[in-house]
Design goal:
Elements (H helix, E strand, L loop, with lengths): L2 H4 L2 H4 L5 H7 L8 E2 L11 H12 L12 H15 L9 E4 L1 H13 L5 E6 L5 H7 L3 E6 L10 H7 L4 E6 L12 H13 L3 E5 L25 E6 L12 E4 L2 H14 L5 H13 L1 H24 L12 E2 L10 H12 L1 E2 L1 E2 L11 E4 L4 H16 L2
Parallel strand pairs: 1-10, 3-4, 3-5, 5-6, 6-7
Antiparallel strand pairs: 2-8, 7-8, 9-12, 11-12
Helix pairs in contact: 4-11, 5-11, 6-10, 8-9, 12-14, 13-14
The chain binds pyridoxal-5'-phosphate.
The site of pyridoxal-5'-phosphate has 13 residues, from helix 6.
């Protein structure tokens, strides 16, 4: 049987992730320092783990409401209003999901008809384009540049809008560049979305991890935007809870209801143990993530200083836990540079083109790695670029 020919056509058009290819070379090798995987090196804070254990001890092993535990939705509503300055009704406007990953997929599937276009800014998280295609949409990337701080400029967005555009996807702070959008740029983007009657899908998973002056601004908080924005957030990054697989979507009730239909039939509900843990995370809030954030901040400054000092041009990203140095002057492609670094010095970083063609000439180094390893990795990188 020719199984390949049985696979859904739109799936065949999706390439394997560039990150996956690269990391298959690294898996199982403990002689390598990895700046690769975008996952906190911290273990989930103890009070959160304890809440999960306690929930199991109490015998909480059932399904929950499809939307998620009401107590957790109420706490999310409070947290989101306090942090993002946008009010959402806990009963009808919040859906608890299996990570932001599921929320993103639900939003796209709830909104897209075949052929609808989704604009997003590149370099970007590797799953955006495949998620759009799997929901039968058309992926329309807009390149961003180092000169623009890898932020989406309203002018570039305006040029990409057509009469088929339905959604604009945003991710600030950005994976893989750490970019943060200015309030002026967000206002410009918001104006265009209102003028063209577009929905915004705003993935703000790194929003607590902002290091410089000024607080995080959610596009949902700008005038006229709450009614057309799906705000996605979760627990993986700030609270170091990747394995709990918990996220949420906040949006007007009809959108949440549509996403809930897909969630209800496909997933039923997010795991109750993870929901109990998330409740504790939000009770602890800032006190729990602030020590990790302080550490990330120090690591960011260390990497940016070391890279620039060794002659690798690296802007200082405002958020998330990635630096995105410019390696163009070495005359190697991102893949050649990354493979060479791996072979010569046993340091793994991700070639920038894994995040879209405009990431070519850059490298993503994740600093969710302990300081000792970061120091070793920077010494190794210095030897490597010195020898090029
Ligand atoms: N969105 C972005 C921008 C990410 O970088 C990631 C994970 O790396 C996700 C979503 C997925 O998050 P979750 O663990 O909540 O599914």
């Amino acid at each position: 049987m020719d199984i390949q020919s049985k696979l859904a056509g739109h799936l065949q058009a999706i390439p394997r992730s560039g990150i996956r290819d690269f990391f298959e070379l690294v898996i199982g090798r403990d002689d390598i320092i990895s700046l690769g995987v975008g996952e906190p090196d911290f273990t989930t804070p103890w009070s959160i783990r304890e809440a999960a254990i306690y929930s199991l001890e109490k015998g909480q092993t059932s399904y929950t409401s499809n939307l998620g535990l009401l107590t957790l939705r109420e706490k999310i509503s409070e947290y989101v209003e306090d942090f993002f300055h946008v009010p959402y009704d806990a009963k009808t406007e919040i859906l608890i999901t299996v990570g932001v990953s599921e929320a993103l997929d639900l939003a796209l599937r709830a909104l897209l008809n075949p052929g609808d276009e989704v604009i997003y800014h590149e370099p970007c998280y590797v799953s955006y384009s495949p998620s759009i295609v799997m929901a039968h949409g058309v992926a329309v990337p807009v390149s961003t540049t180092k000169e623009d701080g890898f932020s989406l400029k309203p002018k570039a967005l305006a040029a990409a809008i057509t009469d088929k555009t339905k959604i604009v996807m945003l991710n600030f702070p950005t994976n893989p560049t750490g970019a943060v959008a200015s309030k002026e740029d967000l206002e410009g983007i918001a104006k265009l979305c209102i003028e063209h009657d577009l929905i915004v899908l705003s993935d703000e998973i790194y929003s607590e991890l902002r290091y410089d002056e000024g607080e995080h601004v959610s596009i949902a908080s700008l005038p006229g935007m709450r009614e057309r924005t799906i705000l996605l957030h979760g627990f993986s990054k700030a609270f170091a809870m990747t394995g709990f697989r918990l996220g949420y979507a906040c949006a007007p009730a009809p959108l949440i209801e549509a996403m809930m239909k897909i969630h209800q039939y496909g997933i039923l509900c997010a795991p109750i143990t993870s929901q109990a843990a998330a409740l504790e995370a939000l009770k602890g809030g800032r006190e729990l993530y602030e020590p990790m954030k302080t550490e990330y901040h120090q690591r960011r400054d260390f990497l940016v200083d070391r890279l620039n000092a060794m002659g690798v041009d690296c802007h200082s990203p405002g958020g998330a836990f990635y630096v995105f140095p410019d390696i163009r002057k070495f005359g190697l492609s991102s893949k050649e540079f990354a493979m060479g670094l791996l072979e010569a010095e046993k340091v793994a970083a991700v070639p920038g083109d894994a995040f879209g063609p405009c990431g070519e000439g850059f490298l993503r180094c994740c600093y969710a790695t302990g300081m000792e390893d970061l120091k070793k990795a920077m010494n190794a990188m210095e030897r490597y670029v010195g020898a090029l």
